[in-house]
Hints:
- The chain is an all-alpha fold.
- It has 9 helices and no strands.
- α5 crosses α6.
- The longest helix has 42 residues.
- The protein is globular.
Amino acid sequence: MTSFNSLFGRFFVKKAKNAYSLLILQVIGALAFSVCGLLIGTGGFYEFLNLYTELLPDWLMGFLILSFFCIIYFFIYMAVKNERLSHNQTWRLAATSDSKFYLANSLSSFVTFIYFIVLDMIVAGILFYFSYQIDQNFKSSWQKMIKQLNPVFDVNTVHFIINIIILVILCCLFLSLLISFLNFASRAIMDYLPSFSSRLLVSFFHLIIVIIIAMLFARMEMFFANQIMGNILNLLNFKPAYDSNLLYANIIIAIVNLILLGVNIFLFDYFYEADEKSR
Length: 279
């Protein structure tokens, strides 16, 4: 039998290669945009050489802008790749149980997504460090900003920041589990009902799920506006973040994720078969 750790490691190594490739493209793309922008702004190559110190801050800004789009793209890419591997007959022949296979595949996809974000933060930190050390205008601007802001961090503020990070991670995990649930449930319906009726039922099932998700997002939007934005505004106004219900929201989302994970494992074990032809 293949152990969970071994299977998880193989999945992670396979998916991490995509993270490295996307990160390299992001770094090169941000550099290209920065060089082109400075060349256009200065009007000539020699003028560009005289302003070479401005390249690093521009590179950092371009990298941060691309990070937003690359993170969204990589999340979608990992979700698609996760479902394809679940549907791949070659991988499903691994000497392990279906539940371990699903957990190794899903968790490796999510860990790879978090790993990509960490790599993004490391590269951004490196660019920030060298920009701060080389470009004096950038350095003086940050020094003035820090002196002006000088926020007061107390226990409530630290708890707020930690809970926000946990909330974002749990929401991303919820979306990835939801995608798998829709895939597995749809396949179960299609396999056990006549073709015509099953398609109608799947469409109806998806519609109900969309309505439920829309209602949940409406509630989350109210919660975000009342609780999270209030804390952020207090933080920007140099006031301690007030107590909120973020902790309870994280507990609820964590419980929902565990339930959804259990349902996905059940559907994957009993109702989801791989393709005869691997993809």
